[in-house]
Every structure is written in C-alpha cells, then in structure tokens.
C-alpha cells in the first residue's frame, strides 16, 4: 500500500507529491490529466520567481519534478470511488475506472475544478484568444480595452469591479432580471463610471476575426432586440464546478460541492486530506493550490507518524 495516495496531478497534487516523497513516504499520484487546468492556460505571469511561462511548459516541469523525487505517477487513470477506512490505522481504498483498487494509509484529494462554459458559438474557438475565465490571471491583458463579463453573481460582479480598474469599459451581462451578487458589491459596481449593466441579457455568440475576439452578440430578453457589442475580451463568470461528484458519501462537501477542509487540509474523515480548487479554500490560483498541496502532505506526514506502531 501507499503511505500517501494523491488523486489529481495539478499544482496541488504535484506539490503534495513533492513534499510527501521528500519525507521518504511511499507516494503515488493518480491523475486523469497531469498538469490539470494549467494545461489550458496560455500565459502564466503570477507565479512568484517565474515572470512568464506557458501552461504546458509549467505542467511538464511539475511532472518531471515529482517523478525525479520518486513519486509513482499513474497518469491517464480516473478515480471513481473512495472508501475511507473505518479505523485510524487501517487502509483507505481508491477504486479506479480501470477496475483496479489502490490502498493507502492516507489520501490527498486534489481533483481541481472546471469553469462552467456558456456553450455558445465562438466560446471554445476563442478560448485564451479573448475568452477568459480568470480576472486575476488575464485581466492585465485587457488594460485600456473594452471587455464584457458574463454573470451577475458575486464572482461576476467582483470581476467587473476588478476589470473596471484596468479596462477602458466593462459591460456586465446577466441572464436573470436582477443581479444576484451581494448588495454592497452591486452598489460599488453601480458607482463606477466605466461600467454598463444589462440584465435579462442572453449571450448568443462570441464573435471574432478568426484570430481573436472582436465582439459579443447578445439578445435583450425583454424586448427581443439583438445587439452586437464590439470588444476585445469576454470573461465568463457563471460558476466554477469542483470535480468532486465521485466523492458522494466519502467526505463532507459544502453546497457548491467543495470538499470541506480545516486549516491543515484535513477533511471530515481522519487520514483523508484535500487541497486546491476542489476545496473550500478561497481564491482559486496556482500558487494557492501549490501551497495547500504542500500543507496537506505535511499534515498527512503528521498523521502517519501518529499512527499506532504495528
Ligand atoms: P487542477 O489544476 O484542476 O488539477 C486537477 C487534477 O485532478 C488534474 O490532474 C485532473 O486530471 C485530476 N482529476 C480530476 N478528477 C479526477 C479523477 N476523478 N481521477 C483522477 N484524476 C482526476 N491560475 C493562476 O494562478 N494563474 C494563471 O494565469 C491562471 N490562468 C488560468 C487560465 C485558465 C484558462 C484556467 C482554466 C485556469 C487558470 N488558473 C490560473 C487557475 C489555476 O489553473 C488553478 O487554480 C489550478 O490549476 C488549481 O490546481 P489544482 O491542482 O487544485 O487543480
């Protein structure tokens, strides 16, 4: 059995693997796609000590580093169920889609999350070429230009306020008749001179010139009128979904499906830890996921040295 079995090979899982292996623990990583969301990132410019890199390069370096310290990487493998052990010194069982079952004294869940897509024409085509999901990551790329934010919940309104400080103009489109964000945020948004808000606005299409985004086509659901908004960027903020559906009944999750963790990354089950975008820890970023992964591995080590000697 593994001392530490990690599910997920993004920044959180990789950092956990690095820390666990360097403690001399028998460590494995099961990852459907090593690198995780980082693979889909065009430019990374906010990781300390790395002024600029591209996602696939960052992901390849993560994998190389964990393999070099002796982590057993099971790439291309998807976990389908976790059966926690009943007793603190026992083994947890992780079932894979392949039919295999892996056993481990501690488990770290680092399965990340996925952005909910609009599902309109042009969105996939112009992803990373004007269509963006993370204002902290990509906001500076649109300095002085016109952008739209889709979604009027807390994350959409926060994104619009954030972007209003960088972009020339921000248009926020919300499908429902009113914004769902907290009143203080809506008040702040309404006070900004370079923001326009449209409610009952249905996004129809992301328009581009073949290379980059040039506009957004939307329909006013009240009047039925269609509009074409010229712009350089579209930030989709309609939800981040944690990859935790398969953990039903195994560990406690909140209303959004995020795994509930304490300050050490421990879940509701002894010996099972979680880190990164799949957890309740706020602000989903690479540097945060990596830090949380390191923390979860150190907490797993702490738990292991406290297990009864057998
Ligand atoms: P993820 O990166 O999501 O990795 C999850 C891992 O779990 C993957 O290996 C996946 O294959 C695996 N997995 C999931 N389910 C299973 C399963 N059932 N069985 C086995 N494996 C499974 N952040 C920044 O800090 N800077 C940026 O510039 C930046 N740009 C971004 C651009 C885009 C387009 C996107 C989508 C995100 C961006 N982010 C950026 C956010 C950042 O990528 C995430 O916060 C970070 O990758 C989270 O790391 P993670 O390890 O928690 O999860």
Automatic annotation (TrEMBL):
GO terms for molecular function: flavin adenine dinucleotide binding; NAD binding; NADH-dependent peroxiredoxin activity; oxidoreductase activity, acting on a sulfur group of donors, NAD(P) as acceptor. Disulfide bonds join 134-137. Residues 2-293 form the FAD/NAD(P)-binding domain. FAD binds at residues 3-18, 267-277. GO terms for cellular component: cytosol; protein-containing complex. NAD(+) binds at residues 146-160. GO terms for biological process: response to reactive oxygen species. Binds 1 FAD per subunit. Belongs to the class-II pyridine nucleotide-disulfide oxidoreductase family. This is Alkyl hydroperoxide reductase subunit F. The chain holds residues 213 to 522 of 522 of the full protein.
């Amino acid at each position: 059995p593994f001392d530490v079995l990690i599910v997920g090979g993004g920044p959180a899982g990789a950092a956990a693997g690095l820390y666990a292996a360097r403690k001399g623990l028998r460590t494995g990583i099961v990852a459907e796609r090593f690198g995780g969301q980082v693979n889909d990132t065009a430019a990374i410019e906010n990781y300390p000590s790395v002024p600029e890199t591209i996602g696939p390069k960052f992901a390849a370096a993560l994998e190389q580093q964990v393999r070099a310290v002796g982590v057993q990487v099971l790439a291309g493998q998807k976990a389908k169920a976790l059966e926690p052990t009943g007793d603190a010194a026992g083994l947890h069982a992780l079932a894979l889609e392949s039919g295999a079952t892996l056993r481990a004294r501690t488990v770290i869940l680092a399965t990340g999350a996925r952005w909910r897509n609009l599902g309109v024409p042009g969105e996939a085509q112009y992803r990373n070429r004007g269509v963006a999901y993370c204002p902290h990551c990509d906001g500076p790329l649109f300095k002085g230009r016109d952008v739209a934010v889709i979604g009027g919940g807390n994350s959409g309104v926060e994104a619009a306020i954030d972007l209003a400080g960088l972009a020339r103009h921000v248009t926020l489109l919300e499908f429902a008749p009113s914004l769902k964000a907290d009143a203080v945020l809506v008040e702040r948004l309404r006070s900004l001179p370079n923001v326009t808000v449209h409610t009952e606005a249905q996004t129809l299409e992301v328009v581009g010139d073949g290379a980059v985004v040039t506009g957004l086509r939307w329909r006013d659901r009240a009047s039925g009128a269609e509009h074409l908004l010229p712009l350089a960027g579209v930030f989709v903020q309609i939800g981040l979904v944690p990859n935790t559906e398969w953990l039903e009944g195994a560990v406690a999750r909140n209303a959004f499906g995020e795994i509930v963790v304490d300050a050490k990354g421990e879940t509701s089950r002894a010996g099972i830890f979680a880190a990164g975008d799949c957890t309740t820890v706020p602000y989903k970023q690479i540097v945060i996921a990596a830090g949380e992964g390191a923390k979860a591995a150190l907490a797993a080590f702490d738990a292991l040295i406290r297990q009864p000697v057998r």
